[in-house]
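Forwarding these from the shared drive since the link keeps breaking.
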Amino acid sequence: MKPKLIILIISFLSAQFVLATSSDTLVYDAGEFKIYQNERSFRIENNSGKILYNHLKYVGPAIRFWQILDDKNRIFYLDQEMKITEPENNFFGLCGTVPHYELKVQSNKKEFLIMEDETFYDYGNEIPAEIKFRISKQDADEVYFINGKKEFNYDGNYGIGSLKAQPDLVIYRKNGKFGIWQDESKTLYDYIEFEDLNLKLYQNGKVGYHGLTEVKYKEIQPFIYNLAGIKTAEGKTGFVDMQGKEYLN
């Protein structure tokens, strides 16, 4: 009976191994390397199946590198050969033949007019700027763009390789409170900080980033690639990613 018992045990362990790995999802195919994710963590393998890094809390692309958060909540970076590196000279070429847009705030006695003008393909600027939004002065005391000014220029390469707010967002001030005009909820905040073309929202002593996190943190640092340092209302520290998932110490 012992040989049969041994076979049964081996079969059971093999089945457990299959079940344990069947939930792993290939999230990045990096040529010679594969990055898998399960409910608990990420791992990086080469094409021979050798595990190079395991039990990682987070793996995400950072232009020409990979941003890693390990099980000790330490951030480091890998190059395309999956070797630890520093992300210096982290840039890539961009296309020059893309639309260029000029946004301006104009106003009359009754309303603010949000104007948009495409200037690259409209050679000679023969096509006039169009009105994107009309905002009644009963609804807003003042309006701005994401740079905190009444004019903002951007092109079709906007946002590539970095985190930035939607370029045509309009911020308005009403009775000392601030909101984002395209936000259908019309939520008002105590303050909106224009931070490197991201909108940092403050409300009732809490803070967060528009489109990236909830407004619920005691402190939040600027995003570096995919992660931002946080301090929760309970005093816990860690990081949050672009989808709002937290990685606490």
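-- next protein --
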Amino acid sequence: MRQEQEKFGRKRLNFGSRSAGADRKFKMEEYDSMDENLFIEDNLSNDIIKRQAGKTIVILLENWKKKMWRYRLYRAFLMGVLAVSIASLTGVLYYYVDSSIPSVINVRANQEESFFLGIPAKAEIVSVSENGSSNIPAGAVEINLNRPVTLKAALESSYQMRVKLFGFLSFKDVKIQVIEDQELIPVGKPIGIYVKTNGVLVVGTGEFQGADGMSYSPGKYILKSGDYICKVGEDEVSEKEDFIRRVEESRGREMELTVERDGKPMKVSIQPVLDSNGVYKIGVWVRDNAQGIGTMTYIDSRGNFGALGHGITDVDTSTLMHMADGTLYQTDIVDVRRGTAGEPGEMTGMIVYSDDRILGSITHNSTQGIFGVCNNKALAMGVGKPLPIGLKQEIMEGAAQILCTIDDEAEYYDVQITALHLDHDNVNRGIELTITDPDLLEATGGIVQGMSGSPIIQNGKIIGAVTHVLVQDSAKGYGIFIENMLEH
């Protein structure tokens, strides 16, 4: 029984042994299976890592491309800004140099004249006759414009000066004109102005209601603001009442008009239409005259006057009025409205249009002012002795005076010349000035409407006339060079 038990025990042991071996085998198989799984998982991990690495590289590449694109865009932007800055700087420098060199330099005959432009340029002077040939060999006379230049020319001579920047880059031709020296009597007193247009000025076009209740505008697209209607058929027209009468008496028949537009004559046809009141119209507003006040600048030795320093323009069209004739009248200042920031002041004058108050005839209206002939009453308006004219090259920034009337008599008031533009695009703004006189600032606030034409005096010479006021600062304004006024 013990043997059985032993056998049984061995069996059990064997069984146990077999069971243990089986377990170990199972575990080994399990380990093998785990190794295979680990290998598979390692391969999968490697693939995942590779894919992730690939994605990372792609992302890095995309980020790099974006950074490069941003960099290129930023660089292009900087290059564009640099190009614009260089172009702007070049433009500003070009404008500065161009405005620093006058197109015309006037010099007095048989007198030494000096000027200083202070620019890095040289000039070649050639005497030019009417046919354009020269009696001076090319390159024979050279001037350094970065230093003071002194000239002396004979009467009725003229020269052409070719300016070269840095001595080699052709830039501008300047005419040196020899003029006779002259003296002018400063005036600085208010004048009443009446100008009659050469023809009837078209101010604008519009619509009106016809007899049938419809809207009409026969003149639209045919006439425009700034046109001058000179003839109706073959008959000349100079007054708006005459023109309006001819339209009303047309009975709706087509009218042929001779119109001056931009200095050129042209013919147009318009058919008037009956309005709701039974009157024939063409739908245009017209004007035939202009009135106002200004200041007389000077009277010359021949009894001719210059005034305003700018032309008379139509208030609606802003175009220079084509003048048939005009008259100067004596006027009295009755009120002065002070100028403030954003609101220019104004002198109000009383004009009586009677023959006994006529001062002279206006013969010319130009961008430089109005000009004409004085009578004896106007000749008595001059203040003091005649003064010589001051040319552009003689004017300096600094103290000066203007002569104007704000009460009964013309008086000198202190100003400061702050800038000079020798060749400004706008001839009426060659001089920048600021009112410094406390009495004038107290009375007017600075420059006011009606002071246009007030002579500017510096170092005992008439150098120009007041033309404009700055709307933002009534103490500041502009003036025209006297030599430009004399060129009219």
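The helical segments are 2-100, 240-248, 376-379, 438-444, 482-485. The CA atoms of residues 306 and 450 lie 15 Å apart.

- D.
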